[in-house]
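REVIEWER CHECKLIST
Item 1: Sequence provided? yes
Item 2: Single chain? yes
Item 3: Sequence as submitted:
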Amino acid sequence: MSNHLRLELSKCRIVFFDLEFYVPESNRVNTGLCYNPWDKGSRLLGGSFFVANPKRDIKCSTHTVANNIQSFWLWNYQSEKDLLSEIYELLKNTLSLVHKAHKKKVSPLLCGIGISSSDVPVLIELFKRYKILSNAEAFRFQSNFRVMDLSQLGIVCFNNGNDFLYPKIKNELLNKFMPGTKFESGKSVWDLYESKDYTGITERVNDEIISTHHIYKSLLSEYRGFKRLEKEEKRRIKIAEKVG
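Item 4: Structure as written out by the authors:
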């Protein structure tokens, strides 16, 4: 970051979020992402967002996170476009706040698990599909954010016996940083939606946001631990050189 730019930490934002989708039985497959934003038979059910101020909200309690989650669900809107418009406004306002404070030299972070290959591109495609943004506008909008995918950041916290660095799945991260916590596949949401268990969907997604926030904090602690070890090793080397 340029020495001429002062980072206003209180005006930075980390958007922890998770989306859920519904896919009709005819389009379901056993593996991979079944949902396609251009498939009119599938639906974006919505999602939950925790727009965190890194100066105060990273160290905050689970209770505080839960109380500040904003949720947007299809059953509360007239249409999928109305739902998406509300999500777009949240992201646009967050972008405006961060850009205004930093002369557009700092971007908001979009944070989640696996979002770089699912949630983020899905939102951009839906913004285009419903003409909330043109193709060119959607490209510019996406490029104004930075994606922090914890499935990638978490790789360095695991032993790797070969040269193939591969992103970690959600339950691998949970098993390491939140032992005893496990989430079923997102496909389980299909049954909840079909049975109109909207409360069950909301609770599940909010729990995922809380878990994502916790994993972010845990990764931050791990990285700081690595740096402390690195500093200690350098100190030992200097002492050894003096003695030698």
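Item 5: Key structural point noted by reviewer: The chain has a mean pLDDT of 92.
Item 6: Recommendation: ____
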